[in-house]
Amino acid sequence: MATVTVKAIVDEIIRGNGYYPEDDLRVIKIVQYNNQFDGGIAWGLIYQGEDPLRYHKAPACHNPKTIWAAEGVR
User: Fold this and answer.
1) pTM
2) Under a CB-based contact definition with an 8 Å cutoff, are residues 59 and 67 in contact?
3) C-beta of residue 5 within 8 angstroms of C-beta of residue 42
4) What confidence tens digit (pLDDT) does each residue in 21-52 have?
């Protein structure tokens, strides 16, 4: 699972329509959740070809909600 804990990185990916500067892979969905360890906010990055619901199904990810998705992705 690709997890980010820095909101500025998430914002940059959203501004880039799923691309982080100098990355070739496109993020198709970003899910915000509270982690199981300390309840801190984290963002799960889902790339093309990965299960778009995996953070919603993971028991370690509490209160998951999609904050951004590429067009056509649920």
Assistant:
1) 0.92
2) no
3) yes
4) 999 999 999 999 999 999 999 999 999 999 99
